[in-house]
Amino acid sequence: MTHSSSVVDGNQFAVHLSDVWKMFPGVVANAGVELCVRRGTIHALLGENGAGKSTLMNVLAGVYRPDRGQLKLHGQVHSFRNPADALSAGVGMVHQEFRLIPSFSVAENVVLGSAPSLIQPRQLEAEVAAMAKKFGLRVDPTQPLWQLSMGERQKVEILKVLWRDASVLILDEPTTVLTPSEVDELAEILRRMAQDGRSIIFISHKLHEVSGICSEATVLRQGKTVATSLDMAATDAAELARLMVGSSPVAPDRPEVATPGDPLLELTELRASGDRGIDAFSNITFQVNSGEIVGIAGVAGNGQRELADVIAGLRPSTQGSVTLNGADVTAARPQQRFRAGLAYIPEDRLGVGLAPRLSITDNAILRIYRQQRRGPFIVAEKALAYCKYLITRFGVRSGDPGGPIAALSGGNLQRLLVGRELDGQPSVVVAAQPTRGLDVQGVKAIQDLLLDQRKAGAAVLLISEDLDELLTLTDRLLVMEGGVIRGEFDPRTVSRHEVGMAMLADTNATTR
Amino acid sequence: MNEASLIGLFVATVSFAALLYLAALGELLSEKAGVLNLGVEGMMAIGAVTAFIAGVELGNPWAALAIAMMSGAALASVHGFFTVALGAEQVVSGLSLTILGLGLAAYLGKDYVGQPHGTELVPVEWAGLSDIPWVGPIFFSQSPIVYIAILMGVAVSVVLTNTRIGLALRASGESASSTDSAGHSVLGLRLSAVAAGGALAGASGAYLTLSLTPQWAEGLTAGRGWIAVALVIFGAWKPGRVGWGAILFGGTLALKTRLQTFGVDFSPIILSMLPYVLTLLILLVISVRSRKRPSPAPAGLGFPYRREER
To answer: Which CATH entry fits the domain spanning A10-245: 3.90.25.10, 3.40.50.300, 2.40.50.140, 3.40.50.150?
Structure first.
């Protein structure tokens, strides 16, 4: 069964990529990819992590030069040497990590790169405001960017692309940083842009979002196109999922009902400040018992990150206490907490969890280097042996253990980090967004590791934005919003809708 | 303390302020683009010696000034090549530049020590204005370089806020990757800013040998390049505030040599520490405030940019 569209007339496509090849040392990221995007439509580009979506879009946006292949825009053949070439041909990309400057105003961020040679700040702000209004993007051009939420920053990124009058917009995983209501708003903005005759490529691996927003889809798997220009209305989610992963993904089995043991992690009246000095959360009281997984649901930025930091000892609490295995560790340093049985899988893997420039081996022994030494020296053979043991036990696909860790892919980084944290039989595991950005296999591997910990009697606190993950894995589910716990649910019986409502409690009242 | 010596103090304050301001503006341009250049002292020394030599050999003060600026820019470009093009550590390269500049200046100028100056920039007389008591001598009988410094201050401020290139330059100092993806050449912006900064440091050095002390001697710059570096921090990377800071710091330099004549029993050594003490205080304020808002320092200051690195 082929999924190519029946009509292949190059002129009708806003974007037509054919037979695109891109190779990196040791990896073929794109192996003859095809992509056709109709003018004025929102087109989904689907695929697991490592399927070659980002590489393909970086080729289209002029960041990478393809090794082979043809690129046509509105029927014309192009060859981009750099992002500037792509921009002047009308291709703009909103990257997953925003390319914005915190100290600049919104307007300055928007016009950077395509500003008039003489700038009248007031006039420029007015022009940016007019463009924002036209597409329904609610941002204040005079505001300094550092004051904006992630959702607002994304609008600035979109404005940047519109300002350059791009006819083709690429959005790389745009919903990752958004609240559900912001996702709806984004969909509305994208529809307006499509009506305006612009073509949008929407990269995602969240199927349910894509089906509501996009009219057609192209699916990549292992660097190849497995389906192009699929009609979204005629394709169901199971079929898309099958195309993405090759065979229907096995949903993790619901763990049997646990009989929780003693409380191993207890938080009492806990309160702490965020980066800007105001309360990130307050009055947090709950406990996690041996042999259960407690989930914390919530939209990013409602105090979950800070809570994880406080439990790990990376951020001071201003009130309340943290108890591990019955011992008060409120004032203990991270290393002391680790020895008391706490494993911490931080949200920011490369920044907090690992040291990007150190080798895989050095990262593997970061926590337990004291056991790998003779006198003041680290014994290289012992360290290497331990690293190899972690690699084998947790299925890390890596090259030379002496090579830099930053060369590993996201999923393998996380396997190594999670493995390192879980290897010492911790009694309490705090995992913040442990599966974010991983492909289906990676997600499954990490989730299985957490379930193993639960079986072994550890108390697991799982902080996640993925509601499906929380609903299938946890024994109890807490919802955090505005720095407080908004409710506790039984994930076996609660509906997505109920949790969603708790996640959004008072959102309108607290909008900044 | 009589009227004449007080006027003398203010005249010297303005002169020193202009000297510091030119060098600090150069450093500000460089830092705004993300390149810390600790070689100001060395670039000033090169500017001073080349201006003096050119003055003796060519007899034209404007040609001497131009040559000093080019020499400053050339020396700064050495720093630019290492730090921007090769991604070398900026502090190490900047410190080396100071040592290299001071040594090179001493070597080039060894035959000119003690020689009479060949030419001098004649103070500008503003018809009518120069004769006003107090205001006239303080503001309207200064070396042309003083007025150039003021013009440069305005120019740098306008370029940074009101032009496309200024926006790109500031962006390259805040986030090189954002600037690159916006289609600007980070390499080009940073190299130009560093070279322009060197030219201004060279002009500042030329002011020493063409107006202030029309002589060449080793060690003539006497640590003023370092005050200029501190001044950029003191002025929170804003050309206007750096200007006010230059007057304040210029005042301490002017007062230092006059304390005894004024009969004040205060150690000039303590006075020469004042700019640095004030700068530390400002750093303290910035650090405390930056818990609430971003620091005024360019966010990418000191970080080399390589496109492929993640």
So the answer is: 3.40.50.300
